[in-house]
Structure formats: structure tokens, C-alpha cells
Design goal:
The chain has 257 residues and is an alpha/beta fold. It is built from 8 helices and 8 strands.
């Protein structure tokens, strides 16, 4: 039986999913991050399938989302995008420390994954945490600086008045640059990394992710099984069933003893 528990850590809600028969065991551990304007419950199907395979999974709630909504209207959420991403990256370590300390997570077998913004969080976290042993980015991208410029161009093309000064934009770039994996790909250290991305994605540009993959795959020459990119020619900003199955199989392959 797979159980789903609502839990709190430092007053931050998350869902904890595990097979009841293994509830008290030290298990391979996966943190799965949700997307922008989404919520932790929306990724329960990933967590269920992973728990069936023997993983302990948690689904954190990002700030200004779901139970942490704080009354911020969705239209006002966009100005907080990078604040949410960076704060989520910082909070990941709290979850890891707690579950390892409680003897519920195997420190040598920790995975990180996410959809859209959650994939962006995942790739940024690889610049900070060596404890991430394998990762999956679903519709995410690592090029924080390029993506911010793309976002600004999109707003201009849509006729949205930009209220940011050049100084504010530079301040934002300085804030996110340390987490930009495309600027420091050596921090991957050949860790297993799977990408899934739809070529018609209008939210997170396919080319930003694929260019990065192309730039790093030669670094995996000695460990080619540790890097893979699944490109869906028909998909937009929605992960296919293939992407779901590939995520589970990736962690089975790289985190289960």
C-alpha cells in the first residue's frame, strides 16, 4: 500500500509518499518540485509510481503556491518568479537534512526532479548540492541568465509595459547568475541527468535546454549512460506519458542498488 502524508518542515508543507511496508526504513530519496502556478498535489502520479519502486518521495510546496499562497494573485506571481526559484533551491537542503537525520533517506541515493519551474529549480540546485546523485529535468532549462532576457523580450513583444530599470534587471541577473548551470557545467561532475522537453514548448524554450545538452554531452564520453535527452516533436508545455515513465526508469537505473 502506498501512503501519502501531509507533513510540515519549518512550517513549510510537503507531501510524503512511501510504501507502507517500508515506511520506517532508510530508502533512496527523491525530491520532486512542481511547476509555476501549480501545486505539490499535481505531481502525485510521479510520486506514486516511484514509491511503488521502493523510493521515498517528497513533494514540496513552493512559496506563493498552494498552501503557501499568501493571497498573491496569479497575475502578480510573475514578478516573483526568480525569488521563488532561488528560495526553493535553498529549501531543498532543509528537506534533505531532515530526512537523512531521521534515518529515512539514504544520503548516497538522493534524486532531484521537477516539471517546468521545478525542472529549472532542479538544474540550478546542481550548482550547489553535491548530494544530488541523479536528476531529471522535465521542461526545465539551466540557462537562467538567457531565460531572463527571453522573458523580458516576450513581455515586450506582448505589449506588456516593463516597470524594471536597467539597474533592477542587472540586480536580478546578479541574483540568479550563481545558480546558472550553463555558466558552470563542470559542477555536473558527470552525475546522471535526464532531460525531457517538447519542441513546441511556448513557456520554456526548447532551444535553451537542447543547446545546453549539446554543449555538455561530450563531457560524458566515459559515462554516456549518465546523460540523455528525450525530445518530443509534437509536445508543447505538457509532459507526455513517455516522459513520466522515463523519469521512473531513470531513477530506477541510477539510484536503486
Amino acid at each position: 500500500m502506498i501512503i501519502v502524508e501531509k507533513s510540515l518542515l519549518k512550517n513549510n508543507p510537503h507531501l510524503h509518499i512511501v510504501n507502507k511496508s517500508e515506511q520506517q526504513k532508510k530508502l533512496p530519496f527523491i525530491i520532486f518540485n512542481h511547476g509555476f502556478t501549480s501545486a505539490k498535489e499535481h505531481n502525485l502520479h510521479y510520486a506514486y509510481l516511484l514509491a511503488e519502486k521502493g523510493f521515498r518521495v517528497i513533494l514540496p510546496e513552493a512559496i506563493y503556491h498552494g498552501e503557501r499562497g499568501q493571497g498573491v494573485a496569479e497575475k502578480n506571481l510573475y514578478s516573483h518568479f526568480w525569488e521563488i526559484v532561488i528560495k526553493t533551491i535553498h529549501e531543498l537542503n532543509d528537506y534533505k537534512e531532515y530526512y537523512v537525520y531521521e534515518g529515512l533517506a539514504d544520503e548516497e541515493l538522493i534524486g532531484l526532479a521537477g516539471t517546468s519551474m521545478g525542472g529549472i529549480v532542479t538544474l540550478g540546485a546542481l550548482t550547489k548540492y553535491k548530494w544530488v546523485k541523479a536528476a531529471v529535468s522535465l521542461m526545465g532549462m539551466p540557462a537562467y541568465e538567457e531565460y531572463l532576457h527571453w522573458q523580458l523580450e516576450q513581455m515586450k513583444s506582448l505589449g506588456i509595459s516593463l516597470s524594471f530599470t536597467d539597474e533592477q534587471i542587472e540586480e536580478q541577473l546578479s541574483f540568479i547568475r550563481p545558480y546558472d548551470l550553463s555558466l558552470q557545467p563542470e559542477k555536473l561532475e558527470n552525475r546522471p541527468l535526464l532531460f525531457w522537453h517538447g519542441q513546441k514548448d511556448p513557456i520554456v524554450p526548447f532551444h535553451l535546454t537542447y543547446q545546453f545538452y549539446q554543449s555538455i554531452k561530450d563531457n560524458y564520453e566515459k559515462t554516456p549512460a549518465n546523460i540523455h535527452f528525450i525530445s518530443d516533436a509534437q509536445a508543447d508545455h505538457k509532459v507526455s506519458r513517455e516522459g513520466l515513465k522515463a523519469t521512473v526508469e531513470w531513477f530506477e537505473k541510477h539510484l536503486l542498488k
